[in-house]
Amino acid sequence: MPAPASCTSITLVEGAAITSEELAACLADHMRWARSGHQEVRLAGTTTRVDWVLTDEGLHALTDREPGGRVALTPTRGWIEDESGWVEGDPAGDSEAALAAQGVDILRSSLDPTFLDAMIRLAPGFTVDGREEVELADGTTTSLWAIRADAPFPTFADSTTTELVVWTPTPGPTARIDVTSTTPGAGEGTSTTFYSQWGELPDLAELEELAGEIG
Known about the structure:
The protein is α+β, with helices and mostly antiparallel strands. Helices cover 22% and strands 42% of the residues. The protein has four helices and 13 strands. It has helices at residues 20-34, 95-111, 113-121, 205-211, and strands at 17-18, 36-43, 46-55, 58-66, 70-73, 78-82, 85-88, 126-135, 141-149, 153-154, 160-168, 176-183, 187-196. Strands 1, 2, 3, 4, 5, 6, 7, 8, 9, 10, 11, 12 and 13 form a 13-stranded antiparallel beta sheet that branches.
């Protein structure tokens, strides 16, 4: 799969410098250009799997968190599954619906390409750190370029990102991002996001049943 134009300025050669703006634009534009894919996020003993599609209207996604639960969302609606079934989020609804709406809004924002763009832009810059054998979500390994943030930097909610590494075969179709952050009162933690199935339309039949056909 070729990369969008914003990725053409990035050269994957060991020691090459990449500005945060260049990398942010490339990664976010590739997500918009691919329009669909799969993510698996591992953090603090939990695993969240996300199938997503971007249409002209916005983001559609179905997530499954272990342990936890499932969330389904469209650009304007969202549902969280509990023991009794799916609960649609509604800020003006009862406490359960209002809580669901809040959770859906947070998830929708974190999955949008603009969130990825904003996170990468906070870094002071990046350097290509050579190729390494890296484990993927399915347990296999492959050789990928490491694009590493040059120094720790402040991020969201008073957190400090102490290390951020983007693993990719070529500029654009990222395979994995590792983020290690420190938060006051919570300590240090590392999230690993695996990206796969770029441009492949996932099975969102259950979301379609909830919300109607994706346009």
